[in-house]
Amino acid sequence: LLSIERTVLTGTQTGDSDNEFQPGGLEGSFFETLREIRLSQSAAGPAPREEMKRVPLPHGWRCHVSPKGPRNYVNTASNGKPDTAVPQLHLFDVDDASCLSQQSPGNTSPAKRQTKEMKETKITINCVTFPIPNVTPDQAEQQLLKPNEWSYCDYFWTDKKDPQGTTSVAGFEVLLQKQLKGKQMQKEMAEFIRERIKIEEEYAKNLSKLSQSPLAAQEEGTLGEAWAQLKRSCHDEAEVHLKFSNKLQCEVEKPLLTFRDNFKKELKKYDHHIIDLRKQLASRFAGVEKARKALADRQKDLEVKTQQLDIKHMNKHEEDIKKARRKSTQAGDDLMHNVDLYNRAQSKWFEEMVTTSLELERLEVERVEMIRQNLRQYTTLRHETDMFNQSTVEPVDQLLQSVDPARDRELWVREHKTGELRPVDMDI
């Protein structure tokens, strides 16, 4: 029976050749060798212990005999620098050295190779983990969440370097700047309408004042009537432009400002929420890195203590190894816990990014549609104003067509004549 002990990310596991480790069972070429030995021993019977002792150890392996009898086989090829990203084999407590004959110092177990390959398919950028595309032939390609729609939720996940290249801007910040620019444009449009209203109000005021002017008030006849109607049309036109300015304020400017205020509140809410989640993600990532370094330090300490097994006092050093193993196991547990917290934070950030991106997309559509409708209302009111203005000048046109100099002369003569008798020659 072969007794085996290994330390993995979740702690130290112990098993034997009759029972595979749980979970996952025995892994790697080392454990395949154990299976082969177990089968050969079952067929040929147990090998004498003296014969086992004569089996040479492969390069990079050392054997230490504990006071209780079991041998400890240590792989020193890592030189105290374990890979914290994969399970580590710290200490093997077995009775047969021949089980190590298939393990060369440069080999990596299939489990380690697979984990390493999986690790190389991902990359972390600014605390966010992304897949590296086209690393393996069978790697599934990510599909867009909303294909053929150019949706915000598909194109703003990575950070973007600023033009100077010194810092990076989060993808959400790029989205947010687009919305803030839209808010500013809406504000400027409202200011434009406000200036248009002022012009209309001033124009109406001046027209009304002009309509009361006494200029040419003494014109008479049909021409005088046309002139008087023209002055009245100025007053009517002033009323039309005043109504136009009032409608612009109520139906165009006010909706623009109201929507802008609501838009601003929505942006502020989403801004703080996503920024807080990104900060949490960065904090979790820092925790993972700290835990990863702690695990590497603990594993290095464990291997150093294991390699020094034949130098110090055996009993005392075995206690040191047990403590180091417990600390390494705890560090592995801490790393797994921090990775879990990081993944949860990233998942939460991902979900909120999708939700918020779609909300910003909805707000942008609403903003553009609302402005379009308001500008159409502006043109409608302008057409109405033109129609009303046209109606004010139509009577003037009619009267101008009726202007008759002969009729004016008749009317004037009738009113102002001084006598019909003409002078005649004087008699002698």
Automatic annotation (TrEMBL):
CDD domains: F-BAR_GAS7. GO terms for cellular component: clathrin-coated pit; clathrin-coated vesicle; plasma membrane. One of its GO terms (biological process) is neuron projection morphogenesis. Residues 99-112 have a biased composition (Polar residues). Keywords: Coiled coil. Pfam families: FCH, WW_FCH_linker. InterPro entries: AH/BAR_dom_sf (IPR027267), F_BAR_dom (IPR031160), FCH_dom (IPR001060), GAS7_F-BAR (IPR037957). Residues 148-408 form the F-BAR domain. Residues 99-118 are annotated as: Disordered. This is Growth arrest specific 7. It comes from Esox lucius.
